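Task: sequence in, structure out. Protein: UDP-glucose 4-epimerase.
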Amino acid sequence: MTVLVTGGAGYIGSHVVRALGAAGLDCVVVDDLSSGHRQFVPDGVTFVDATILDADVVAKAMVEHEVQAVVHLAGYKYAGVSVQRPLHTYEQNVQGTVAVLQAMQESGVDNIVFSSSAAVYGTPDVDLVTETTPTAPESPYGETKLIGEWLLRDAARASGLHHTSLRYFNVVGSAVPHLYDTSPHNLFPLVIEALLEGRTPRINGADYPTADGTCERDYIHVADLADAHVVAARRLLAGEPVEPVYNLGSGDGVSVRQIMDAVARATGIDFEPEIGERRPGDPARIVASGELASRDLGWTMRHSIDDMVRSAWEARHAHPA
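Result:
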């Protein structure tokens, strides 16, 4: 069986491709390399250098390689920056998803796992988010991810599309040294690069209504996340029932300051982070229950925060600038 992975040359996408391959599934990667890396795609995996906005190219790849399912990860993923770039975010995430669904319809592919986000919840007024928590996104990024879920829902009503959406927030760590997070906006690479350059890491806002004043999130290891995508894809391919939405949550939030402490432990570098202003679009706390995903997708947190930080640090050191 062959799975097409959009964004498969990116940090998360390359881990998903690796996990799919380990599970015995063939992959085709479609990525325009706007943030991904060609060297992240394993040898032997078909790579199509194209934007997902080009539905004809995506459909051609599906037909040529007899694709039976899609894992849709491609998109613009930066909540804070999306506030300054709303039109770009909507183009990549909404128009891009429409194009992928059009390509699937044209080529007869009817299974899709969608990479959504906990950003669809905005700042929830509950301590622990579940799949029934009302959605109220506070950034264009969160809005586009919710619209993506709606697109899948409506396509399913119209054509019988089989789908599920996985909502998660901060994905960190590395499963293997050659795959690592190169984002200029994500917390782990920002902190690691600062330390490598002799700068002091920065916390964006320490006046949130949380225990230590810094944002609290689910931090999940990328390998655990990739495994959940594989199980979801295999269930769809087997015709097994899935829920339309799953939270891949830890059930136990970690603050940015606690992450800084873990970085100090992993690196042996003692530092006191600088405190900066809040970033637009950042909610104070999002922590989700992963019980539903545990029931259906075997979801579990196999890595501790220290594991996550240590693997990220080691992977970055394997690639000196």
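The longest strand covers residues 26-31.
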